[in-house]
Design a protein that fits this description.
single chain, alpha+beta, two-stranded antiparallel ribbon, 3 helices, 41% helix
Length: 106
Amino acid sequence: MDSNYKKIHPIINAINREEIHSEIINTFPELKKSNYELVTLGTSKVHKSLKTETSSISSTSTDLYYVLVYITISHNKAATEEAKLAMEFYKEYIKEDLLKHNIDIG
């Protein structure tokens, strides 16, 4: 298996829901009053695609691996704006974590 897969898989499995939840509540305290709940934080399976580069001299194929990170949160109507901000916070938090581990993000 490609080394990208070996790097991505453990990192995705290690997403710490409690740590992210704590960061959200500290950053957006109003959500605590709004029945906020992190419903889903996970990934799809690891997908594989093939990248081919061709020149007049040679052709090179490379396996690429990727996952889709998905997040679902629940809240009452009064907290809609806070929830939107929290969702952006989640996205950035996960991106930074993946970048720390030298995982390309798209």
